[in-house]
Amino acid sequence: MTVIDWDVAVNTGVRLVRPGPQVDLPDARQAVAQLRELSTVAAGHVRDFTGMNPLVPAGPAAVVDRPGWIRANVDGFRVVIEPVLEQMGARRLSGSAAANLTGAVGARVTGVQLGALLAYLAGKVLGQYELFLPPDPDGNLPTGRLTLVAPNIVHTERELDVDPRDFRLWVCLHEETHRMQFTATPWLRGYVQDLMQELLLSSEMDAGDLITRLRAAGEAVADAVRGGEGNLITAIQSPEQLEIMDRVTAVMSLAEGHGDYVMDAVGPEVVPSVERIRARFQKRREGLGPLDRVLRQVLGMDMKMRQYEEGAAFVRAVVAEVGMADFNKVWTSRETLPTLAEIREPSAWVDRVVRPAAVTE
User: Fold this and answer.
1) Residue 249: what pLDDT?
2) Tell me, what's a Pfam family for it (predicted)?
């Protein structure tokens, strides 16, 4: 039984998303070509700086517009959520409310709300490493795809009044770091997917309960637009999930902070205006309008800003204390990932993971 109408989600998101900045066709083509080129350039810088080596060939990034980003993310939602719903199918759909929620009308409503969330986010995201992709025609799971959202990058570089090539390379450095994390560390993708599924299956929810929570998330956003203070994180989270959320937050803080650290630390010889870009970008983050701030809070994006800051501070502290080679022990296994407490106290991770190994050498 279909519980989310994915086609409705795509159509709603594409209909609601705001158009990107006005760009002449030759300039648009030049931006797309340059982003593809710079993603490859950035991959070399990330490899040299981090000492990590991808186990699969990278190739240039996929460059998309806002509707393209929405379509890709609906595909990603399906890859993560549909197996969870299948497992929940073993748990009965309890009561008439759940039955109604999983009917055709409920599936369309949930699709509309998911599409509305993605329409908002599609105007904000500069790029991402798409971890969860549908199988190819032969049934093989792709390792992932680096995607850059060209209109958002062009809009942001104009708004910040920074050098376009420098800004585009700076963004590519961050996103290529994410690609390196997952292509050089093959177990990491499975760990993140396990965490996401464990998070959704961690309480005695059935499919109807999950859809109820997705509905609540949509209502939280609608409430924020009306001036309320709803929060998506509390809307979809149960008390039993807090421990799992700590593990999710820890790994995402590591990934995002590592990306932020690398994009700034690669150096002025690669991105000459990096200090100006970072200063203006940070000021932009802090200068959002009231509605935008509320929506970011509702969508958990404020939490992601903290992940950037805490994760980058963790990476800086560890690299300063033990060097890049020993920092890279973080990617050895699930057990060597930092806990959330260690993200906030980097020396505790060094004592647990790096120093015991040093004693026996």
Assistant:
1) 86
2) Zincin_2
Q: Does residue 173 share a domain with residue 132? A: yes
| Residues 342-354 pLDDT 10s | 999 999 999 999 9
Nearest to 34 by CA among 134, 189, 136, 157: 157
What pLDDT sits at residue 293? 56
Q: Can you give the pLDDT at residue 97?
A: 47
Residues in the chain: 361
Q: Same domain, yes or no, for 260 and 307?
A: yes
State which residues form the domain around 55. 1-93+104-223
Q: Residue ranges of the chain with pLDDT lower than 70?
A: 1-2, 88-105, 200, 202-240, 285-305, 357-361
Please state the φ and ψ torsions of residue 351, each to the nearest 5 degrees.
-65, -35
Tracing tokens 């030759």 back to the chain, one arrives at 26
Residue 167 maps to a domain: yes
Q: How far apart are CA 228 and CA 56, in angstroms?
A: 47
One-character DSSP codes across 175-190: HHHHHHHHHS-THHHH
In terms of domains, do 198 and 262 share one?
no
β pairing state of 127-130 and 62-64: unpaired
78 and 218 inside one domain: yes
Domain boundary at 198, 223, 248, which?
223
Here the CATH number for the domain that contains residue 35 is 1.20.150.30
Neighbour count for residue 133 (Cβ, 10 Å):
16
Tell me, what's the pLDDT at 225?
Answer: 47
**243 and 167 assigned to the same domain:** no
**Residue 42 CB coordination number (10 Å):** 30
> 10 Å Cβ neighbour count for 206?
19
Cα 300 to Cα 292: distance, rounded to the nearest angstrom: 12
pLDDT score, position 42: 96
Which residue matches tokens 């991808």?
54
With contact defined as beta carbons under 8 Å apart, do 182 and 189 qualify? yes
Find, among 211, 235, 239, 209, the residue nearest to 223 by Cα: 235
Q: Which of 296, 19, 20 is nearest to 156 (CA)?
A: 20
Q: Which residues pair with 225 in a beta bridge?
A: none
Tell me the pTM. 0.83
SS3 145: strand
Same domain, 149 and 54: yes
